[in-house]
């Protein structure tokens, strides 16, 4: 389900959602600001916004500091994708989900969010965040942090990734996809992103070490 393109001061933002049983399982920006410092801001903000959209199950997500325009455009496009999803017969809708996400101060935001977790056996068990070991690649270090709840990866993010020159572009292209694949697969058996093989390989190594630490 692809949302409407949202115009921002720095370019167009457009969000695509993958929805299963009325829940967002994946969010990605198919368009985002490019060129100059926008590459860097997009690389920094889009992975976080993708993860927040999946965690919150709504457009009530925090803006990423330093990337306010991109965040605002992302939320507009996300909201339009959610509206289309509801219009296309999803009476399963995410009714209970929006309320609790916005409250708790930025960084720890995601913990209490998914109010509507479709009846799967009662209260949530402990959620833990685990950071994998740094994987050295030809273009720089890659390090992955995952959030695990009830034995499932609910969030994956690269806390380190190759920077500078062409690497910025490759990181911006690869990391959001790798984050989404890690959450979808629940393990480190994910596809490399074409054109970013070194980053993908480093990502998988660090992801595997985080999973080992998490006991999964």
Share of residues in helices: 25-40%
Shape: globular
Low-confidence stretches: 91-124
Number of strands: 7
How much is the radius of gyration in Å?
17 Å
Q: Beta-strand level of the residues, as a percent range? A: 15-25%
The residue-averaged pLDDT reads 82
Q: What letter string, H or E per element, gives the SSE order?
A: EEEHHEEEEHH
Q: Given the helix and strand composition, which structural class is it?
A: alpha+beta
Largest sheet: 4 strands, antiparallel
Number of helices: 4
- What's the N-to-C terminus distance? 31 Å
Descriptive report:
The protein has 216 residues and is of the alpha+beta class. It is built from four helices and seven strands; from the N terminus they run βββααββββαα. The protein has helices spanning 37-56, 68-87, 166-185, 197-214; strands spanning 6-8, 11-20, 23-31, 127-131, 135-137, 140-149, 152-160. α1 (37-56) runs parallel beside α3 and α3 (166-185) packs parallel to α4. It is globular and about 40 Å long.
Question: What tags apply to this protein structure?
Answer:
216 residues; 4-stranded antiparallel beta sheet; single chain; alpha+beta; 36% helix; globular
Write the SSE topology.
Elements: E1 6-8, E2 11-20, E3 23-31, H1 37-56, H2 68-87, E4 127-131, E5 135-137, E6 140-149, E7 152-160, H3 166-185, H4 197-214
Antiparallel strand pairs: 1-2, 2-3, 4-6, 5-6, 6-7
